[in-house]
Design a protein that fits this description.
single chain; about 220 residues; Rossmann fold; nine-stranded mixed sheet; two-stranded antiparallel sheet
């Protein structure tokens, strides 16, 4: 059996677990207070999924005049520590929604907490499905094999352009929808929730990530 073990928070929505299983991988739950480094000492981990959620981000992650609209949570520090450890190991990472934003902020991006104001857009990114355009020669394009797909949307924070990473997808209004961290084998962030609707495009994302985890496992 060559299924990779992918760490994810124990209390993550069961749809994440279903998506990981559908990608022929094993979801390994991290209990509250257990770090990726802790669990990796017990059994070798081959990937990390950092899921979404609404919680406080530090003020210095935002551009001027904006700040987080959410309550503080222990999850922020846990996610920071786990992502940093995964980056140190070059462990494959898939950051989803807030998970992408944390991965990005740790890699030099800033955020806005009001998409409508910053991007002057009519798209309601808090609830409106919309198209995104995927850049070729990226992992995301390699996984879905399409230059355009429709995604769901549940966020009001968004990334701002940065010279610190690869922007692999944007929506038509310029909002960054996916990133990749240079010099890492697989550190991908996506702004939407593929686990919520596991269609062929979203399953391809989990399957592509699982393949990267298998490559790490066999390295």
């Amino acid at each position: 059996m060559n299924k990779p073990k992918i760490a994810i928070r124990e209390s993550a929505n069961e749809k994440y677990y279903s998506a990981i299983a559908a990608a022929d991988a094993i979801a390994l739950p991290m209990i509250e207070g257990e770090s990726l480094e802790d669990i990796n000492k017990k059994t070798r981990i081959h990937g990390l999924v950092v899921e979404g959620g609404d919680f406080f981000f530090p003020d210095d992650w935002f551009i001027s005049d904006y700040k987080s609209n959410y309550e503080r949570s222990y999850r922020l520090n846990d996610n920071i520590n786990n992502i940093n450890f995964a980056l140190y190991l070059d462990l494959p990472i898939l950051g989803i929604c807030a998970g992408m934003q944390i991965l990005a902020a740790l890699s030099g991006y800033n955020l806005t907490s009001n998409i409508a104001q910053t991007f002057n857009t009519q798209v309601d990114h808090r609830k409106e499905n919309h198209l995104i355009n995927i850049k070729i020669n990226t992992l995301l394009y390699e996984w879905v094999k399409k230059s355009q797909i429709t995604v769901n949307s549940f966020h009001n924070d968004a990334l701002i352009e940065s010279h610190h990473g690869i922007i692999s997808a944007k929506s038509s209004d310029g909002v960054i929808e996916a990133i990749e961290i240079p010099d890492k084998s697989c550190a991908v962030g996506i702004q939407w929730h593929p686990e919520q609707i596991l269609n062929s495009d979203n399953l391809a994302i989990f399957s592509g990530f699982a393949k990267a985890c298998v490559e790490y496992k066999n390295s």
